[in-house]
């Protein structure tokens, strides 16, 4: 049994597709199928349900059980690679949603690396669920997300909340204190801020409302807000960042959406080689949140 077989199996679980797994690993689809079949033969059990016309792959009960062993084996492989590469032992892999990495956390990163020059940070931006998947595999040591997934391999801790506000052009028709009913939903630049936000949005504007623009990253909002009716809802810290770059109008709602909760997530098994540095980074993170309590609410 090859450790690479575990990695192939995990790629299939992550992508829910043999085709997508082969693309992720830069292998042919036939190679991936062959390796999985040989793995099943060696284990003398079926791991994956293969049904004709089924686009999304599911695991058998034995496959669900084997998933735990595959994750452990993959983590051991990663730890061995880090052990051989001493430089990697000084690197903390951090993943966060883009609105945090672009607008909130750079000051934290800068402060940390200036005072800890021997510790390297490998920072990446992803959607919340992607970060959860990477933490499960220990490809990321610590993640900061707004949406969680159910996982026995992840420890999640709420660390702060962000008030949500409306931003618009400085000459917009909206007031500094605004009732959501006065917002023209068609001119919204809508970004999915999570389940609670969507419930609030459906309540205020209706579930079938048509908006002019939908985006998948907060970085687009700043460049697309235009005209007197255009508006978007963003965390207060993001709005303040926009306002420092270009004067905008920040409006507080009389009936605002729920604050966005940010969670710190880690694998239940922290790489021993990175634990000391990770503990230090978490101390800096905690201090950073407390020192910025005017814009974000510590939890």
Structure description:
- The longest helix has 24 residues, at 61-84.
- It is globular, with a radius of gyration of 22 Å.
- By secondary structure, it is of the alpha/beta class.
- The strands form 4 sheets. A 6-stranded mixed sheet has the order 4-3-5-13-6-14, sandwiched between helices.
- Helix content is 43%, strand content 22%.
- It has 3 domains: 3-83, Winged helix-like DNA-binding domain superfamily/Winged helix DNA-binding domain (Arc Repressor Mutant, subunit A), CATH 1.10.10; 86-153 and 264-298, Periplasmic binding protein-like II (D-Maltodextrin-Binding Protein, domain 2); 164-253, D-Maltodextrin-Binding Protein, domain 2, CATH 3.40.190.
- Belongs to the LysR transcriptional regulatory family.
- GO terms for molecular function: DNA-binding transcription factor activity; transcription cis-regulatory region binding.
- This is LysR family transcriptional regulator.
- Keywords: DNA-binding, Transcription, Transcription regulation.
SSE order and pairing:
Layout: H1 3-15, H2 18-25, H3 29-43, E1 48-49, E2 58-59, H4 61-84, E3 91-96, H5 98-103, H6 106-115, E4 120-125, H7 128-136, E5 142-145, E6 154-162, E7 164-169, E8 177-178, E9 189-191, H8 195-205, E10 213-215, H9 218-224, E11 231-235, H10 236-245, E12 248-253, E13 260-267, H11 275-291, E14 296-298
Parallel strand pairs: 3-4, 3-5, 8-12, 9-10
Antiparallel strand pairs: 1-2, 5-13, 6-13, 6-14, 7-11, 7-12
- The H-and-E topology, N to C, reads as HHHEEHEHHEHEEEEEHEHEHEEHE
CATH class of the largest domain: Alpha Beta
- Compute the number of strand runs: 14
Helical content, roughly? 40-55%
Largest sheet: 6 strands, mixed
Shape: globular
Category from helices, strands and their pairing: alpha/beta
Average pLDDT taken over every residue:
88
Protein name: LysR family transcriptional regulator
Domain HTH lysR-type: 1-58
InterPro entries: LysR_HTH_N, LysR_subst-bd, WH-like_DNA-bd_sf, WH_DNA-bd_sf
GO molecular function: DNA-binding transcription factor activity; transcription cis-regulatory region binding
């Amino acid at each position: 049994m090859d450790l690479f077989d575990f990695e192939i199996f995990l790629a299939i679980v992550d992508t829910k597709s043999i085709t997508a797994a082969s693309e992720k690993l830069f292998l042919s689809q036939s190679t991936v199928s062959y390796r999985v079949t040989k793995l099943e033969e060696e284990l003398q059990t079926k791991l994956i349900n293969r049904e004709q016309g089924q686009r999304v792959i599911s695991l058998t009960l034995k496959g669900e059980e084997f998933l735990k062993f595959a994750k452990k084996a993959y983590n051991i492989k990663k730890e061995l690679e880090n052990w051989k590469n001493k430089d990697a032992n000084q690197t903390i892999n951090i993943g966060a949603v883009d609105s945090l990495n672009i607008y909130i956390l750079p000051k934290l990163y800068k402060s940390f690396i200036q005072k800890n020059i021997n510790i390297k940070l490998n920072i990446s931006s992803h959607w919340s669920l992607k970060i959860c998947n990477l933490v499960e595999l220990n490809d990321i040591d610590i993640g900061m997300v707004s949406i969680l997934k159910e996982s026995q391999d992840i420890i999640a801790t709420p660390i702060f909340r962000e008030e949500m506000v409306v931003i618009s052009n400085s000459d917009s028709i909206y007031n500094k204190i605004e009732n959501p009913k006065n917002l023209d939903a068609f001119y919204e630049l809508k970004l999915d801020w999570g389940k609670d936000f969507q419930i609030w949005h459906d309540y205020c504007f209706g579930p079938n409302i048509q908006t002019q623009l939908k985006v998948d990253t907060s970085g687009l909002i700043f460049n697309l807000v235009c005209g007197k009716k255009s508006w978007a809802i963003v965390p207060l810290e993001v709005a303040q960042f926009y306002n420092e770059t270009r004067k905008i109008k920040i409006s507080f709602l009389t009936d605002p959406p729920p604050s966005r909760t940010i969670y710190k997530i880690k694998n239940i098994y922290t790489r021993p080689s990175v634990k000391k540095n990770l503990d230090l980074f978490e101390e800096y993170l905690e201090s950073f949140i407390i020192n910025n309590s005017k814009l974000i609410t510590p939890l």
